[in-house]
């Protein structure tokens, strides 16, 4: 069965009708074939029987005269073969000519009643009939169209034509019915990637309209929830930043003494942790997707991380010349979290981005030569606030770096997969569909 809804629906509509039409047509065709062929065979054998009677009754009709009569009156080629016998083996008719062979045999037995042979295969346009007479064989060559229904192509054209018309009409109507389902699927997929589909309205059958209305209501509820959460987080961020700013100012005004630098470091760590908590709670919905050139975008992230991690060697192997609709701030945080996590536990980090045109996907790979993560914990590290017992954890120390990165990737319709790197450390592989 096809995987798409349109060809499946087309098969459901067309196949039963075509099967029924083929069955009815074949039944009618068989009846028509039989009746017409029997009538034509009966008429032809009547004419042959008349010529046989003339020859047997010695009514002054010699062989030449009978041959002339058969040619002029009945359009048959008549020949008398003195001393000849009937062929010992007859050419068997194929399946399509079995009806003609059977019909002629029945009529000759009924009307003439003498030994005979019927050859329907030697000649394409003629039927060879031989009848055993006293001392000779009467050979009759008659045109096939005079004894056989040859207009079967009309029924074939009729069957093919009506089937094609039915297929065309069904395809047009079904495509119009399936188009609203396709638009609904595209709208849902785009919303799952954080994009809005403009001018989406319910259309189609009542069931499809109902599903589309339910999707619009669900989308509006999710948007309202995100807006309320964003507003709340903005207020929380403002309320928390104010005392942090006062503390930083007070520390800046203190004279240089023991413990001040430690307090500043703790305060900076608190601010970084707050940023991570807010970013995780805010998610990827607070930003609209915009077309972004990937190469300068990834190069800028590379430069920023190089400035932050001066002692770590960060290599940008490749970046594609392409444009992709992404949420720049969220996607920058996703890549930066992976690079920062690699830099915290390795001295060599490689970043490569490439475009898979066959599958229309963007791939970003971050490799490092660190200690890596055990295979059984590759999925656990994506859980919020999860901390590894060993030294491998994200740089902010909150257990949210990889969680935020995967949340952003999945918000763009993709994912992040961790595995063992060829460099000996960890590989983070981001895939984003176009």
Q: Brief description of this entry?
A:
By secondary structure, this protein is of the alpha+beta class. 54% of the residues lie in helices and 17% in strands.
Helix-strand blueprint:
Elements: H1 5-57, H2 63-74, E1 76-82, H3 98-111, E2 116-119, E3 126-133, E4 136-143, H4 152-192, H5 206-253, H6 260-282, E5 290-293, H7 294-308, E6 313-318, E7 323-326, H8 328-343, E8 348-356, E9 361-368, H9 401-411, E10 415-420, E11 426-433
Structure write-up:
This protein has a 5-stranded mixed sheet with strand order 6-8-9-11-10, with helices on one face. Strands 1-4-3-2 form a 4-stranded antiparallel sheet. It is an alpha+beta fold. Helix content is 54%, strand content 17%. The protein is built from 9 helices and 11 strands.
Which features characterize this protein?
single chain; 434 residues; alpha+beta; 4-stranded antiparallel beta sheet; 9 helices; 11 strands
